[in-house]
Amino acid sequence: KQLQSFGIMPDIIVARVDRPVDDASIFRKIALFCNVKEDCVIENRTLPILYEAPVMLEEAGLARIAMRELGLEERARACDLRDWDQMLARIRNSEREVKIALVGKYVKLHDSYLSIAEALRHGGWENQVKVQVEWIDSESITPGQAALGDKRNHNVSSVTSHRSLRLPCYKICSSVTLPLYAASTYKAPPWPVWSSPRYPRSSAESNNTAPWRRRCR
C-alpha cells in the first residue's frame, strides 16, 4: 500500500522471513492487498549460509516468474546450478579453520571491507578452510604492541608488528607502500630511509639530506 501511494506498482514481491511460511493464506493476503498475482509473492528466508539464497529463490520459481512477467517466458531455461552447488558443498564440508586479521581505519563499518572479507572467505572455501576474520582498528595498534612501531602512523605499527612476528601480510590501496617504508625506515644502517608526503620521515632522521633520500620524498 505504501509503495503504491508513492506510485510504485510492483509485479513481484520478495518477502523477508526468519522461518518458512506454511500458511498459504498469508501469501494470498499480501497478493490481494498489494495487487499482484498470488504466485508473485515469494518468501526469502533467513539461511545459515548466505550463498544458499540463489538456490532457494530458484526453487521458489523467481527466475521463471520474472521471465513470465517480462513477456520472455518462451526464452526461459532451467538454471544450471551445478557449480554453485559444488561451492556450497565445499562451504559445508570445510573443517579446518584459519584466522586472518583485517586491519583498517573503518573496520567499525564492516561493509567498508566487505569485498575483501568475502574474497578471503571464498579463498578459504576453495581450499575447504573456514576463514575467521578478526576486525582490528588500525588506530588501536600502538607502538607498545609492535616491536618497531611509529606513534604517528598506526598502520606502520601493524606492518612492523607482522614483520617482527614473521607473519604473512597482504596490503591494498596506499598501504601497499608501507612494507617498503617500514623496512627502509626501521632497519639498522646502512639501509637508506624512504619517505613520502603521506608517510614522512621521523624527526630523528630529518637532518639527513642524502641525495637518494631527497629523491624519494
Given helix and strand content, the structural type is alpha/beta
| End-to-end gap | 62 Å
Strand content: 5-15%
What integer is the average pLDDT?
76
Please bin the fraction of helical residues: 25-40%
Shape: elongated
The largest beta-sheet arranges its strands as: 1-2
* Low-confidence region ranges: 144-152, 188-194, 203-217
Number of strands: 4
Alpha carbon gyration radius: 27 Å
Quickly list its features.
217 residues; alpha/beta; two-stranded parallel ribbon; two-stranded parallel sheet; 9 helices
Description:
- By secondary structure, this protein is α/β, with parallel strands linked by helices.
- It contains 9 helices and 4 strands.
- The chain has helices at residues 2-5, 24-34, 53-59, 62-69, 82-93, 114-126, 154-164, 178-186, 211-215, and strands at 13-17, 41-45, 96-104, 129-137.
- The strands form 2 sheets. A two-stranded parallel sheet has the order 1-2.
- The termini are far apart.
How do the helices and strands line up, and which of them pair or pack?
Elements: H1 2-5, E1 13-17, H2 24-34, E2 41-45, H3 53-59, H4 62-69, H5 82-93, E3 96-104, H6 114-126, E4 129-137, H7 154-164, H8 178-186, H9 211-215
Parallel strand pairs: 1-2, 3-4
